[in-house]
Design brief:
By secondary structure, this protein is an alpha+beta fold. It folds into 2 domains: 74 residues, no CATH class; 40 residues, no CATH class.
Length: 147
Amino acid sequence: MKHIEQIYKGYLGRADLANGQIVLGSDGLDDPTVVVRHWSKEVCTKAATVMVVMDKLPFSAVERPGFKYFCSVAVPKWKMPCRKVIVKNFLRMYASKKEELKRELAGHCVCLTTDTWTSVQNINYMVLTAHLIDNGWKTLRGSLIFV
């Protein structure tokens, strides 16, 4: 095996394992077509982080038996990362989105509004929303904080 790796290092058909692995898979439709999909451990880990954020799950959700079982069936070759890895990815994503938002808002005037209300359970809530008009005269808004 070592001989093959040394001699055929530059072989064009060789998979670049650093960037993931090319696998055959279905396109998800009923017809029997086969497509080549690029699989990457990093992409799967990022997708798990996005799932935790989008579904507002605790970081420990990736360590629950049901989720581990699902991942072992859906993607057997992927070793599910621990919650510490998910937290690190989340913090990187947060910093990236924060910088992206700062760049986007840098050339605009932003108006802030607050809204407060009390729930049926007598719990007080407040949300801070940013409003702006972009260069194409489209109004944009987004919640900055929800307390």
